[in-house]
Amino acid sequence: MKILGLNKTTLLDYPGRVACTIFLGGCNFRCPFCHNKDIVLMSDAIDAYSQDEIFAFLRKRKEILTGVCITGGEPTINNDLPGFIADIKQLGYKIKLDTNGSSPAMLASLIDNKLIDCCAMDIKNAPEKYDTTVSFPALTDVKKSVELLLSQSCEEENGFSYEFRTTLVKELHDEADLLSICKWIAGANAYYLQPYVESPGVFQKEFHAHDMEALSYFEHLCQTYIPNTHLRGI
After folding, report:
1. Where exactly are the structural domains of the chain?
2. By percentage, how much of the chain surpasses pLDDT 90?
């Protein structure tokens, strides 16, 4: 497992908590609009952190931070992820996992063993366009992860919450795609739509964001199926 980034303080990555974000290298998807190309490809241009460095930081910041967001890349491709998370939880932190949903067995294990407190799963596109979008035969496993999260109770006493989210790209997502996604994940606890943002680290640079009128329309469209749908990153 390569740790290729550390955002020492964030108020955005783990809603409701002052957190840090740990970026794990590598991913099995190749989404063309991904903005973390160097992390996905585990570029030698990025200096890795040792686990000793990460845990020294977490011990030092225990009085300030209450949450740790683990993202990537795709964290669940690492077999040693459960042990890494368990060691972080022993320090008293709540854990949020960002995932593409391609490892349903790993996700189920993390939930069943109460190693994660929050999960944000990316929905890359409509089922009909999924494997083409991510350049990987992912749909079967992604569907299992969607079903797993939809089955979870997000009542406060349960101590677990989840959300789905989609980065909207003008060239890849239209009204029919959003309808297909919403019918797929109908009844979800929360769904967030975020506009594509150009960045130096993106895989392909020919993409654009929808305008605000289209984003607002998509938000209202999705609320028919998932009332707790909101725009994020506007």
Report:
1. 3-164
2. 93
Q: For residue 159, what pLDDT band results from cuts at 50, 70 and 90?
A: confident
Which residues, other chains included, contact 29 with Cβ-Cβ below 8 Å and sequence gap of 6+? 40, 74, 100, 102, 124, 134, 135, 136, 138
Pairing outcome for strands 94-99 and 191-195:
unpaired
- Phi (first) and psi of residue 75, to 5 degrees: -60, -35
Measured in residues, the chain has a length of 234
The pLDDT score that the predictor gives to residue 156 is 63
Three-state DSSP class for 202?
Answer: coil
* CA atoms of 32 and 17, how far apart (whole Å): 31
Buried b or exposed e, range 93-132, using 16+ CB within 10 angstroms: bbbbbbbbbbbbebbeebbeeebbbbbbbbbbbbbebbbe
Q: What is the number of other CB atoms lying within 10 angstroms of the CB of residue 55?
A: 15
Q: Top-level CATH class of 3-164?
A: alpha beta
Amino acid type, 67: G
Q: Indicate the helix (H) or strand (E) that contains 24.
A: strand 19-24
Q: Are residues 190 and 222 in contact, defined by beta-carbon separation less than 8 angstroms?
A: no
Q: Which DSSP letter does residue 157 get?
A: G
The Cα 119–Cα 12 span in angstroms is 14
Element (H, E) at 54: helix 51-60
Q: Which two tokens stand for residue 1?
A: 């497992």
**Is residue 7 packed enough to be buried (19+ CB in 10 Å), middle (13-18) or exposed (0-12)?**
middle
User: What is the per-residue pLDDT for 52?
Assistant: 98
pLDDT above 80 for 82: yes
Provide the 3-class DSSP secondary structure of residue 91.
coil
